[in-house]
Amino acid sequence: MKIKNAEFVISAVGPDQYPDDALPEIALAGRSNVGKSSLINRMINRKNLARTSSTPGKTQHLNYYRINEQLYFVDFPGYGYAKVSKTLRQVWGKMIEQYILERESLRLIMLIVDLRHPPSKDDILMYDWLKHYDMPVMVVATKADKIPRSRHAKHVKIIKQELGMTPEDKFIMFSSEAGIGREELWGYISEVAELDKEEDLVTPPVESDSNEV
């Protein structure tokens, strides 16, 4: 899919603010500082549309990004950040739960984890919860460029075992800096969102951000 246009639409705090154009939505969930914003920027070949930050937990809403007038990326608040109050984490949890269970436009939840480290307790809880409700979920392991290729298989095995993934569960390694996994991820998104499969998935590379959040 050639990226013709991409734009930030809204930071929504509830259903009354969600877009009503019924475009398919691809949600991104994961802990703070795992690389969700950088993944979005790499996927759309833009350096700063999804703002990265050195302050984990900064995203407190559902951030909507419209791509080619065909679909949305929906960036969830990052979880697992200790300095965020318990009350605020509960509010986030209710907002996300309502969105996941009730949003008809939702086509896929990407659970973003760090390839370098075993999944956190929050990662495992999120994955178990999504599988319990039979939600369409795939695991995307970011920062694949940060470890040698010879160790990729070992780290992938650890992540899959810790999450309890089965062979049919979808998993992709990704790097926002090196572009690893970008074409494969767009291919799967195009499939689940029922986008035009005749369009070219390859777009020119762009200078990547140095920091992933």
From TrEMBL:
Domain EngB-type G, residue spans: 22-195
Keyword tags: Cell cycle, Cell division, GTP-binding, Magnesium, Metal-binding, Nucleotide-binding, Septation
Co-factor(s): Mg(2+)
InterPro entries referenced in this protein's UniProt entry, alphabetically: G_ENGB_dom, GTP-bd, GTP-bd_ribosome_bio_YsxC, P-loop_NTPase, Small_GTP-bd
SUPFAM superfamilies the UniProt entry points to: P-loop containing nucleoside triphosphate hydrolases
Function: Necessary for normal cell division and for the maintenance of normal septation.
PANTHER family (alphabetical): ENGB-TYPE G DOMAIN-CONTAINING PROTEIN, MSS1/TRME-RELATED GTP-BINDING PROTEIN
Family: Belongs to the TRAFAC class TrmE-Era-EngA-EngB-Septin-like GTPase superfamily. EngB GTPase family.
Name of protein: Probable GTP-binding protein EngB
Gene name for this UniProt entry: engB
